[in-house]
Fold:
Amino acid sequence: MPVTTIAGTEVTVDDEGFMTEYDEWNEEIAAELAANIGIELGEGHWQVIKFLREDYKEQGETPMLRRVSNVGGVPTKELFQLFPKKPAKKMSYIAGVPKPHGCV
Amino acid sequence: MTFVPDFGDDDGDRKICFIASKGTLDMVYPSLVMANAALGEGIETHIFFTFWGMDIVTKKHMDDLQFTWLGNTAMHPPGKKLHMPQGMAGLPGVTAMATKMMKKQIADLDVPEVPEFVQMIADAGGHLWACKMSVDMMGLTKEDMIPEIEDIISATDFIELSEGAQVIFT
Structure:
């Protein structure tokens, strides 16, 4: 696995650039990952990112958009505004969790 | 060296149109699941509802789609090498029972029922269209359908709007 430096910290990533170690993540890293893909993190983004991290820790897998919306409490429309075009992939990239694998 | 995933934000020109022509519970999911996935990938997505597929977006029917294995020889009870007798599917009450079982299996996968699924797709920016011939044939009006239907359009309109798109018939 490649190692790269993000926000002054060495982190392990996969070939695409997704972080692979849950515990290497911190908020400064999230801000830099977001900036890498043109997103400036605001309150709405943080709500999603925190939910993703908590839910991943509890469930052992990254939630799909429907779960982020129904359980995390951020409506689908808003998810597409916060993380345009590919919300599921972008939010997991920033939150330092794997890409979601479900179908719905 | 930094690794930044390519989210394909600049690709932008892929477009998918689904034609949803069936109203049986098992046959409405393919277009809904794939349209939802396409939207999640940032692809411009349209669904054209026609014939029995009109039930997916008709307020009166969308929460009451049914499943039968009549005519479907591939129906096995989950995980078993058994065939369900075709004649049994025609008995009174069996469609209701089979529908209930399938709905439970779908819910167990945390996949939404049809009304919520259609709403999710609309919220994700999916474009929903109703077929003019079907609307006329079934005596429907725009008020019979969910407000997320953008318009009632003709076959010609659909051919125009699907120019350059990948078209998938379900």
Notes: The mean pLDDT of chain B is 94. The beta strands of chain B are 15-20, 44-49, 127-131, 149-153, 166-169.
